[in-house]
Amino acid sequence: MPIVKYPRATEPLWHEWDRKAQKCGLRHTVYAVNGDQYTGEWLDNLKHGKGTQVWKRTGAIYSGDWKFGKRDGYGSYSIPDPVTKEYKKVYTGWWKNDQKCGYGVTFYRIGEHYEGEWSGGLRSGWGRMYYQDGSIYEGQWLEDRPGGQGMLRLSNENRYEGGWKDGKKHGPGKFFYLDKGQLFEGVWAADIPKCGILIDFGRDEAPAPTQYPIPKV
To answer: Is 80 exceeded by the pLDDT of residue 31?
Structure first.
């Protein structure tokens, strides 16, 4: 009885190529069509786990945690200096769904920096902001601006403690004029004091007290 040989079914090459192209686990650098590159872990063709992304257009680098293709977890974001080309850290902290979320520190170009809480990429919650002029705000933030209760200390040590709204003094508050030895306590609206009382406060220790003390009523 003759033996009939059937040709072995060959699998199309593209099946093998597709299996090799599937990204899962730790991979070497993968380049996107636009020149971006990623080195790190994958899951089901999505960046997932630890990895580093370099954007070709801006030169920016993110190194940290990923979750299903988005920055999620702890990581740092840096950009090159336009003059020296050296990398400067812009943000280090927590991310969620590709945005700053949780506690983190951001460094701005003009020498200012913020350390505190974020939500949806905006300063939100408790935080401390160091400004270029030497003043410091510490307190609550809402949608990237001071909102709630907070203290602003100026470079000359004078300070305001009280309510804020949309980045401006708003509501009951106290302003300590430590250079003059006075205290104003009252109510603000959109950065303008509407009513209150002014009394001497630490006048004897003030570096530049007013000529005459405020009489007690």
So the answer is: yes
Spatial contact of 60 and 37, defined as CB atoms under 8 Å apart: no
Q: How far apart are CA 168 and CA 59, in angstroms?
A: 36
Alpha helices in the chain (DSSP H): 13-21
146 neighbors 162 (Cβ within 8 angstroms) = no
What distance in Å separates the CA atoms of residue 51 and residue 104, rounded to the nearest whole number? Answer: 19
pLDDT band at 14 (very low <50, low <70, confident <90, very high): very low
Q: Which amino acid is at 108?
A: Y
The three-state secondary structure class of 200 is strand
- Rounded Cα distance between 127 and 116, Å, is 4
Binned at pLDDT 50, 70 and 90, residue 83 comes out as confident
Distances (CA, A) of 129 to 6, 115, 158, 181: 77, 7, 16, 26
